[in-house]
Amino acid sequence: MTGTITRVTIREVADAAGVSRQTVSNALVHPERVKEPTLEKVRRVIDELGYRPSKAAQTLRSQRTGAVGFELNATGSATKNAVSFPFVLALSERSRAHGSHMVTFGTPGNRPMLAGYEDMVRTQVVDAFILADTHLEDPRPAFLDAQGIPYAAFGRLWGRPELTSWADVDGAYGAATATEHCLATGYERVGFLGWPDGSAVGDDRRDGWERALVQAGLPPGPRATTIQDLSSARSVADGLLDAVGPGGAVVCASDLLALGAERAAVARGWQPGRDIGICGFDDSAIAEIAGLSSVSQPLHEIADHLLAVVHSRLVGSPPPTQGALFRPSLAIRSSTTAAPGPTPH
Description:
- The protein is an alpha/beta fold.
- The chain has helices spanning 10-17, 21-29, 36-49, 55-62, 84-95, 114-122, 140-147, 171-185, 200-215, 230-244, 255-267, 285-290, 299-314, and strands at residues 67-71, 101-105, 128-131, 151-154, 166-169, 190-194, 223-225, 249-252, 277-281, 293-296, 324-326, 329-331.
- It has a 6-stranded parallel sheet with strand order 2-1-3-4-5-11, sandwiched between helices. Strands 7-6-8-9-10-12 form a 6-stranded mixed sheet, with helices on both faces.
């Protein structure tokens, strides 16, 4: 049998922290009003006691739901957007620390659509949104600005430099780090498998690969482009492997493209790591299962930043002065750990 659940009160939190009830309330709703040492102490006591504020009472006082909306799988299946699930998980894990909770919703199509946002705004289900899958001519920022709804974006708001409520991974830095790792491991040539030119995210990652080669005193290596599809990636990668040759490596714009390169290599009898180096981007489940080295995004740090921006906008603060660019790290696995061996036959 389950025991009786005892709710911890705000008075108990205040007494344990040695502060007033108003200070505890401010720590939950207006943390900018509380000095940092006191804020940390109150948050620590809240975690220790397991205090959960009454959402109903908060809503009546503020006319807010405490909910932040997030459009789920806006660009298709998890294999095509492998960061979606881990990012939603990071948002969900970090939202409590920001006095909020996540509400996901979905709309059909290969690009984010306004219909879902219009419905969420009309029914007042959420107070704010976190956007993902940002792209050139993205209609969502203009719509939300017109409605007076706060938002923050995972991904630069491409083509809108005046908009600063975003956080993104430094894709150029990540691809450059992967390229430098391949060169340092001993691979003679490093090619690039990316998306068709014009993809803002893909172009950024390609630029990092090119920059690393220039800094190493090497000419740009062979490169190829493909859509985010495994069959297409495998087919295109086959030709790229011919150009790179055994003893070389391929840095890819995503883990799905890297899996395509891995399958193309195995099909011709090349062992990833020994005969050809392969590095992906996103450090998704795809990379972990296939043993692919990959660029790992700091999703929890990004989630924390975006939730803080949203909370700040909800209490009337201006947008940040600039967007936040987070540097990724490299998860090294067997696809780039073995020194290149003799030319395979």
